[in-house]
Fold:
Amino acid sequence: MANRGGPAQRPNPQTQGKICQFKLVLLGESAVGKSSLVLRFVKGQFHEYQESTIGAAFLTQTVCLEDTTVKFEIWDTAGQERYHSLAPMYYRGAQAAIIVYDITNMDSFGRAKVWVKELQRQASPNIVIALAGNKADLANSRAVECEEAQTYADENGLLFMETSAKTAKNVNEIFLAIAKKLPKNEQASGAGSTNQGRRLQELDGSPKAAGNCCK
Amino acid sequence: MSKASTMQKPSMEPRFAGITFFATSHVGDVCGTNGLPLTPNSITIYGRSQILRTFSHPNLCAYLDIIRGKHERTMIVLEYYALSLSSAQCSISEQGIVKLCQQTLQALAYINTFGVVHRCLAPDNILFDSKGNVKLFNYGLYYMTGQGGDVSFPIGNPRYTAPEVFLVDSQTVSGPKVDVWSLGIILAELALGVGQLWPELKLAQLMRKVLSLIHCNSDTSVLSRIAREHSCWTKYESLPKSLVALINSCLQLKPSDRPTPEELLKHPAFLEHDIANLEIHPFERVEGVRGKEHALSSLPLQELFYLWRLAGGDVQAELKKQGLIRTMPTILSVPRLVLLEGNILGKRRDQTSLLDLKIIPLSLDTLALRLSNVPVSAYYPLIETRSEIIQDDDECDAANLPLIIRERDTEYQFRRIVLFRRLLEGYPYTRSAIIREARRDIPPLYRGAVWAALLEVEGDIDAHFIETDKETPTHTDRQIEVDIPRCHQYDELLSSREGHRKFKRVLKAWVETNPQYVYWQGLDSLCAPFIYLNFNNEAKAFACLSAFIPKYLHRFFLKDNSAVIREYLAKFTHIIAFHDPDLSNHLQEIGFIPDLFAIPWFLTMFSHVFPLPKILHLWDQLLLGDASFPLYVGLAILQQHRDALLSSGFNECILLFSDLPEVDIERCLSDSVSLYCCTPRSTTYRQHERVVVKTPSQKNRPHHPDLEMSAQTVAELQAESCPRISGADLLDLLDAVKFPRPKVLVIDVRGPELYNIGSAPGSINIPHTRFDWTAEIPQLPSCPEANTLLQNRGKILVVAGQGDSPQAAQVAQVLLRSGLPRVCILHRGIDVLQLGNLLTKPSST
Ligand SMILES: Nc1nc2c(ncn2[C@@H]2O[C@H](COP(=O)(O)OP(=O)(O)OP(=O)(O)O)[C@@H](O)[C@H]2O)c(=O)[nH]1
Ligand SMILES: [Mg+2]
Structure:
């Protein structure tokens, strides 16, 4: 059970064209499965007793598109409302965000909408936002209808998928969809990975405009 | 060791025994409604049965351990006596029967107060200690299995089972009165002297027989009918009236007519017979058979069992040896067909999983042999009159070995356990001795109690906990409920249902009693070690948590805690800079700031990032330190991965610490202690730290307030790369009597005019103006003083300016950047030394 679905593909040096690096942040109510989605995506694993996240956790994973290799620098944040004040430190400068809710919990969907609003207001204007209705395997205790979420996502221009970290359903797919949608223009500001931390510290710096690619 | 063999071979009667059974396993891969897998029944049993270990009554065999084996197996270790009512081959006097009845009832009444019912009371579960007193055995089986719900076998011996048990469905929970019936049957057997009732009947017939007793009525009592059936009417008629009345009360068919054990204890039969000093039976005394009692017998059973295990005792292996655990190759039990939903067809029934409640005594001979060299005096260590002349450091070979080995060394643990038991008995008067001994190590058996002592948990903690509201729903409940099933769930205790309940109650009690604070994720992790160590004492777990938080995490759980955490992290940054400039410079360079990785470290005092065994060792030391100690633990962890950090960029570093890498805790702790010891306390001053009211003896050094630290804002702290030191600490370090070889060098950055008027003894003058501040990275100017400075590398370098001018901080940063360790800034500048009358005219060199 724990290892169904492998990690996303590693880049193949022969076929790779350019490598793009993107900062992606996961947001959403506590216990909706943010860390589980990341763990599934990065390591192909699922832990029933996934530990709660305090502060934030950082992981990286690479996906291959036809001509580009996309490297995600993923910030998995703590879901508890109280940790909210830390969130800007992580989403500031992010080029992509996955906002996660739990399809068996209506409140978590409400919380997801609040996150969408906050990102639309505060984050980088070109940020690619995906909405993930997680725990799709628990469809028989569903509280949020798929159509409702789809409509909401369409209205707000979000990518949307129902996912399951447990069965791996749509996990790689949602990251891939984000990778496809991200702009991969060469001239974007090339803040390398070593500047990541500093970028996080820039508490009042203006959000980066677009994806940064290096060749 | 060779001496031992010439001595009388140590040998002891077994004092405890093992039994085993299987819990029902869940079919297939089932999940509860919350999507989490169902807790295995053996874990539920494990959690539930812990409370049994606290039962203490003269007529009960104590529960010593519950162990989970493979495939839902549960093993139980209980106090044990070889002699049982079923094995005793002699008749008991009528008075003896009454006494046996009374002691059994007392034991039953005791377990009833915990909501526990025996349900399988039978002669083989009534044991006798060496003085002939009743010791009830296996009384927890029905309770621990959830009234039989978690196991697939029926609980109880049909011969002694109350008729109503057969009449209701298996869901109905039996009350205390079923045991009274069983006792009645046992008494009837004894009184009529017939051995077992209905010996020739098979199981099914027995049940029918018990049910047929329902036809008895007010004219024919159950006892009289039994007497007639067993042709012992004469014996029946000769029995004392009071005994017959007693048995009749037990054998009331309707539970409503039957008394509970508590009620039956008031029966006149117990007054009529003078049984107080009577012995139940004339069995030969077991004592004396093997000569003098072994010194080990003086140990409490829990200690004996703990040491037995250290000496290699393995319950599972013993049960295997005795044929109670047999294994069958898995290949033989592979099912023919498994349906997708998880149903299994065509699986051969595994004979090895059949129930066999045989009792296997566990031999103490190995342990006795292992400890045969220990003199009797070691069982009674002196703790009060311990003189300094008697050196006991070399009392045990293991004393200087690594902690992990000491914890597994039987003799060493024996000595530690005996010593700590005595110290704990004397708490709080023995507090300082406990601290002294805990510095060496804490024996795991008594860790919970030692921690409570170190945290100064005293007073009526039970009453306080009982009074606290742990039930009323609050906003926090959802968060607590989603966090608990993610908190150290690899541990059997903490993942059990009982564990979850305890978590919830203790956390809710904490939130309730701390209205100034709120529940932050992470509190669950903080709670875990205390629940783990005090699983049977929630009040103590709660009291420990309540004492721990103000000591180490004062104000961390404020609704808005950002100032507190930022201050803490800024001090952490300072401490890294103070002790490890190269590491500090590198981490600054790549932007690997503590905010990104260290919040879970400090917010949970590492309990969120380490597994329990490591937390326990870490906190053993943490509890001996003050509120600044955790900063050094954090630094020691970084330093264990120093090479990797120094050679990595931001991403690699943050990845390395996203999943905390392997840390050698023992080394980490000894490093932390050394770091702590060579750091002036004021460098870790925090305005949000709890102010400890000093005891009068510590107050003898009153300082001018300017010599003490005072609050800085987070922005100020972050603007400075090095920590500040207080004037008082500097004066102390400058004390030439205390430190004949100076430990400190003061770098005075004022202009020479001021410096020459008066400065700190031994100080050097490198004026701020001497630096090229226009350079991108300002360097240490080349001058003789700079050479002196470099020669004094390793000393505490106190940069002092005039007042709180930023010049000192700027110079300190340059020193740090050039890789000098132990740089700090004098708080409030050189002027404060005036207060200590310490300014001297520098001798011109
Ligand atoms: N059935 C099911 N359970 C899931 C799924 N994803 C996560 N879970 C479970 O949900 C619980 C919470 O998952 P986490 O990944 O810790 O949630 P989180 O969003 O990171 O929570 P915080 O760190 O508190 O913000 C865990 O017990 C997971 O095992 C899923 O797709 N299906
Ligand atoms: Mg998480």
Summary: Residues 373-455 of chain B form one domain. Residues 1-8, 285-290, 387-391 of chain B have pLDDT under 50 and may be disordered. Chain B has six domains: 16-80+297-324+356-365, 83-270, 373-455, 461-553, 560-691, 720-844.
